[in-house]
Amino acid sequence: MTVVTRFAPSPTGYLHIGGARTALFNWLYARGRGGKFLLRIEDTDRARSTPEATAAILKGLDWLGLGHDGEVVSQFERADRHAEVARELLAKGAAYKCFSTQEEITAFREEAKEAGRSTLFQSPWRDADPASHPDAPYAVRLKTPTEGETVIEDEVQGRVTIRNDQLDDMILLRSDGTPVYMLAVVVDDHDMGVTHVIRGDDHLNNAARQMGIYTAMGWPLPVYAHIPLIHGPDGKKLSKRHGALGVDEYQKIGYPSAGMRNYLARLGWSHGDDEFFTDAQAIEWFDLSGIGKSAARFDFKKLENLCGQHIAIADDAALLQEIEAYLDAAGKLALTEAQRDGLLRGMYCLKDRAKTFPELLEKAHFILADTPLEPDEKAAKALDAVSRGILAALTPQLQNASWSREELEGEMGAFAEAQGTKFGKLAAPLRAALAGRAVTPSVFDMMLVLGKEESLRRIGHAATSETG
User: Fold this and answer.
1) Which of 40, 343, 383, 451 lies 20 to 30 Å (CA to CA) from residue 95?
2) Residue 141 phi, psi dihedral angles, 5° rounding
3) Active-site residue, 97 included
4) Which residues does the UniProt record annotate as the domain Glutamyl/glutaminyl-tRNA synthetase class Ib catalytic (predicted)?
5) What is the pLDDT of residues 178-220, one digit of tens each?
6) Does 378 appear as a known binding residue?
7) Does 220 lie in the same domain as 87?
8) Which of 227, 248, 264 corresponds to the end of one domain?
């Protein structure tokens, strides 16, 4: 059997973190078993569904690197097929025409509430003789068993039992002939060949109702796995008060997608004590048995820590490409060709300990800044008259250096000794000269990335500028 999973978001807003994790779990499960990962846009809510939201969802999945198989399926466009199944259920006697009006249903519930009975609507038309049917609009309802139990064998939640007398006769077709979402989901999953339904546990009760359609149609049930929701650090449902919610916001903040995938995978799923892992490892290891039953808590510090580790091991060219995508998403200026070249040369000394792209780009200030540099307040203090004199004396010593790390370290060490000081005393004015900052990558790394000509030009400029 080929494993087929699906992600089925509603296009009523951005792709939120919970949805992104659901998509990731489906993607990992399918990819780890040579299966298919399908995408369906559940756009039956025409009042709230927008093309912009659909585009945002697709863009979010693209940023996360969760490529789907086949064409994107629109649920709304399949309405005729959904209605066809409802009519088939009607013909089988597994569904019936209900002529009860909304006023009658409301009156039934109010009366039941006052009498202390269940307010679950019991249609008087369930077993009515078709000859008594009026010439009036009707809904089509599924005949749910009134006795016994519906059992959901869930891969995460375990065995879940619901009494059938707690389930109503679900509407399949509204009185205007349009199919309901609950019917559409089942028909689409069946027609798309979905074998595993991995989704949020807020859909657990839906599964019991949807199973009635599978059973009535004689269709095989999918494997269910209902995953817990994500909470904020305070244990409450994740919301805007906890920070960014949409996947697009995380890209704009500057998190690498590999780090985001790693963190989302660990959010409610575990593989032993492993925290940091690659996509290949996640695909190999991921299994439904590793998903916990309790809600996961979002932790920004853990996210940043993992992102830092992924930045550190990333391929330089791929990292540059993602940085450029971040700049575009965040509405920042694009890199010039010279800046791109400089970043690629310097990536080896920029990646270490940078947890986000803004942190990496701050370290790269010496590459990206316009020259002549304007030193910040701390750097300016390091360029007093004495320090400028030292830089002026150092410049001729560097003129004949071969510009290898070993020779630069030798020249600097010898110069510091001749000055009766230690290299540490030279570092602050050199940082200020080369980067205009007090906190930078190592002086030697900056000199190697900038090259001999540019390094000497900056040191010479700082030596003759009145900044201290």
Assistant:
1) 40
2) -115, 145
3) no
4) 3-304
5) 999 999 999 999 999 999 999 999 999 999 999 999 999 999 9
6) no
7) yes
8) 227
